[in-house]
Amino acid sequence: MITRSKLVEQLRDYQIRSQHKRDILGAVSWGLLLCFLIISSYLAVYFRHFKLSAAIIFVGISIPTFLHISRQRKLAKKRERRLLLPLSM
């Protein structure tokens, strides 16, 4: 017999697995983007376009920094929401 608690547990497991898949996909895509930026920076230096190389390196450094800052803001908002009392209280 399927009980409500079993259904809730299955739903929670499914949500955790789907979130894990999205996290892995996001990490791989950002890794590929940063590898592309590094390779294009080396090519710019090879063809003596030093300003272009500096701009690419700046973008490669700033993207993870901005992502980290936005993630911290999102976690802070989530923590703040958790501290608020529900309407039923």
UniProtKB/TrEMBL annotation:
Residue ranges crossing the lipid bilayer per the database entry? 24-44, 50-69
Write down the superkingdom of origin. Eukaryota
Provide this UniProt record's keywords sorted from A to Z. Answer: Membrane, Transmembrane, Transmembrane helix
Extract the PANTHER family matched here.
EXPRESSED PROTEIN, OS03G0669600 PROTEIN
> Can you say what this protein is called?
NADH-ubiquinone oxidoreductase chain
**What is the scientific name of the source organism?**
Rhynchospora pubera
What phylogenetic lineage does the species belong to? Eukaryota, Viridiplantae, Streptophyta, Embryophyta, Tracheophyta
